[in-house]
Design goal:
The protein has about 325 residues and is an alpha/beta fold. It has 2 domains: about 150 residues, HUPs (Rossmann fold, 3-Layer(aba) Sandwich), CATH 3.40.50.620; about 170 residues, Rossmann fold. It is about 40% helix and about 15% strand. Helix 8 packs parallel to helix 13. The longest helix is centred in the last third of the chain and has 17 residues. Bound molecules: magnesium ion and zinc ion. The site of magnesium ion has 8 residues, from loops.
């Protein structure tokens, strides 16, 4: 179907002759249509409205290279032609090799030839079109769309380094989750190998971020200030051990509060993305609770469950299941 709209120059001339016998008006419009965008679509739709049959004159790869340089086109001519052929407003496509379409216009002799507002009435095609009583139609300027701008944006986006993170749960992952709702440094006991594992992770280029549900505050078991003091102590203790924690995010709410930050809700991760510009698909979450895994899956993180049994009524599974933080961080660093 699509390919049947794409014609060689000889073939298109035959088709045009037949159409003209049927008194159809022929509209032509040329361009490279590299990385098709809405501006192209609007122009093509406007071109189609100028007559019965729209023929797109597509610059070949050779033609595009000769006026835009060796790095263009991004999309090769066969693909560009097929993409155009999928558009309802395009009736035929023919490819030309020269820099401008004068030669093919000489053969087609269109009723109307469309040109972009940036070229204007006195475009290079005018003479040949008017020679055969054709008219030039200037398309409305569709500002705000440009392939070059798209390419700039894309290359900017990919020239920046990717910021990756490891999101660590706190209770049960970094420290033993006992007693329940612990909030005193005296009760804070690190899990086996946590310190050495975190030291290794600190040397990597991953941001290290703790995300922790602390509903003990919402439940009234301890105060926000207790949590802040505990975290202050934790950070300075770890710093002495040459461990870098880039940020701790906590949810202080009661489950009944229906906040947007209590795991497996995604609020804490979203804040971290805002604060650090993290690319989640290159990042990890490690935790000992199904909530950590659901959260991770929800936001496209790679997930590591710490524990013996992963029980859930859901179909969701962690990417990895390990016994302790050491194993988890080994997997992360090996994947780096
Ligand atoms: Mg936990
Ligand atoms: Zn919350």
């Amino acid at each position: 179907m699509r390919k049947s709209k794409i014609k060689g120059q000889k073939e298109i001339v035959g088709i045009v002759q037949a159409l003209k016998k049927q008194r159809k008006s022929i509209v032509t419009y040329n361009g490279s249509f590299d990385l098709l965008h809405l501006g192209h679509i609007k122009s093509l739709e406007e071109a189609k409205k100028q007559g019965d049959v729209l023929i797109v004159l597509l610059n070949s790869d050779k033609s595009v290279r000769s006026y835009k340089g060796a790095h263009r086109p991004i999309v090769l001519q066969n693909e560009r032609a097929q993409t155009l052929a999928a558009l309802e407003c395009v009736d035929y496509i023919t490819i030309f090799n020269e820099i401008n379409p004068k030669k093919i216009l000489e053969k087609i002799k269109p009723t109307i030839h469309c040109a972009g507002a940036d070229w204007g009435k006195n475009c290079i095609e005018r003479e040949v079109v008017e020679k055969y009583k054709g008219k030039i139609h200037i398309l409305r300027w569709t500002q705000g769309y440009s392939t070059t701008e798209l390419i700039k944006k894309t290359s900017n986006a990919y020239s920046k380094p990717v910021i990756k993170a490891v999101f660590l749960d706190r209770d049960g992952t970094i420290n033993i989750n006992q007693p329940e709702y612990l909030h005193k440094k005296e009760d804070f006991k690190f899990t086996p190998f946590a310190i050495s594992a975190l030291q290794k992770l600190s040397k990597s280029n991953y941001k290290i971020i703790i995300t922790t549900n602390q509903s003990g505050i919402g439940r009234g078991y301890f105060k926000l200030n207790d949590l802040k003091k505990l975290h202050q102590w934790l950070l300075s203790y770890l710093k002495k051990k040459k461990i870098r924690i880039d940020r701790i995010y906590y949810c202080p709410h009661h489950p009944k509060d229906k906040c947007s930050c209590r795991k497996p809700k995604t609020g804490m991760i979203e804040r971290a993305v805002k604060d650090f510009g993290i690319n989640l698909s290159k990042s990890w979450i490690v935790g000992d609770d199904i909530k950590d895994i659901i959260l991770g899956r929800e936001v496209n993180l790679k997930t590591i469950f710490i524990g013996k049994k992963f029980k859930s009524g859901l179909k969701i599974r962690p990417h990895y299941q390990v016994r302790d933080l050491k194993k988890a961080i080994k997997i992360i660093l090996q994947s780096n």
